[in-house]
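[09:14] KT: can someone run the structure on this one? pasting the chain below
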Amino acid sequence: MSSEKAFLGHPRGLATLFFTEMWERFSYYGMRAILILFMTTDVAQQGLGLDNQTAGAIYGLYTAAVYLLTLPGGWLADNIFGQRKAIFIGGVLIMIGHALLAIPGSTAVFIAGLAFVALGTGFLKPNISTIVGDLYPDDPARRDAGFSIFYMGINLGSILGQTFVSLFATWNWHWGFGLAAIGMLAGLIQYQITGDKYLKEIGKEPKAKSNTSEKKNPVFAIAILAVMVILIVIAQMTGYVDLTTAPGVAQSMAILIPGITFFYLLNIILAGGLSSDEKKKVVIIFVLFLGAATFWAGFEQAGSTLNLFARDFTDRNLMGFLVPPGWLQNANPVFIVIFAPIIGALWVKLAAKNMNPNTPIKFGIGLILMAAGFFVMVIAANAAAASAGAVGMGYLILTYFLHSIGELTLSPVGLSVTTKLAPKAYVGQMMGIWFVAASFGNLIAGLFAGGFDSEDVSQLPDLFMSVVMLGVGAGLTFLVFSGLLRKWMGDVK
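[09:31] RB: done, structure tokens below
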């Protein structure tokens, strides 16, 4: 399979995965571009009429669920369905979800639609990335380059979705949601037509079947689950968390997600039948989880605080045309499409000269670039406060540029290295852990939106500066400890 070079110098199966992911991201990012705007629009204008805090919490919970459900999605693929079937099931559920969102007039149907999209993405996201890694079993440098090209598909879908779904939504919110459903249908058709021909047997069998010698301790796993449930009940009874409101649930999940992830990985380390080397690599996966979660907590504010800033405090008049807020988010995928092949080629050339930065260093650079983007927003917010008006679109575009380059140094590399670090029988589940980092980051991004006051721009510089400090601190930590982390990664680069 690896000898077939029919898609930009890579296996032809990469094209199947590229276009499947492109249409899935068309539907996801297109819907995300209008979601918080729809929820905060007055009922008189066919919106839900929610305040920023409630809408931000729902946004955070939904986008968190989208990625949190990749963990059971990865497990089911590893143990029952296989990656290929899980991808198809996920696509069908996503399409149903967007179709439900296209039905106007019912909050219950709206919530059901979000649930279907989240569940379907949980099946699709970790498993399609796993198969990309399987295309390159013995070539780490080309695998990184392959993931960079795969990332172009993600961002091409994002551009198309945010452009056309946002445009349709200016006419009717539900037309936008319906277009997202059509996009996912296109992806499913393409996947079914080309999958068997170009992916052959990759991903058909559950990976756990190929490692029947592993020793598992289900009693330990059940005990950990029981402890987590008891802690949640106690926290609710003592008032430490509040599970009766959307903001309360979101705040509670911000505590529970990293806790559950830690205990989940602890279970695999202690009761998963792993060697000493494999256990160290699982620890590294958790460290990368923390770094990625911090990055996404800033980056994913594109759909929350930065989207609200675009609507409320940005001059979007372009030669008499009022640019939809969601269109500004296209700056990110445009930059990704332009720079992904450049960055991917750079890693290959540096590897040939034995100068390729290790993964922890790349994570540190990505986090600092994310922080730099929010420093631009600190300047933008101060300018808006000083003028008591809207600022130019250039601030957001520069922020998205810095975030895009940071994304390219962290995300495709993180995807690739996770497939290499993961124990063989847990590849799908470890990809689930990677996406749980995105879940946690999205949740935090939604909570930040709850602190966004559309009537008072003066509070935004401090809000944005808190993200700057978080990103710089995390980035420097990765740079300082890169040597130790690299040592624990063993033969994985």
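[09:33] KT: thanks! Confidence is low (pLDDT under 50) at residues 212-217.
[09:34] RB: yep, looked fine to me
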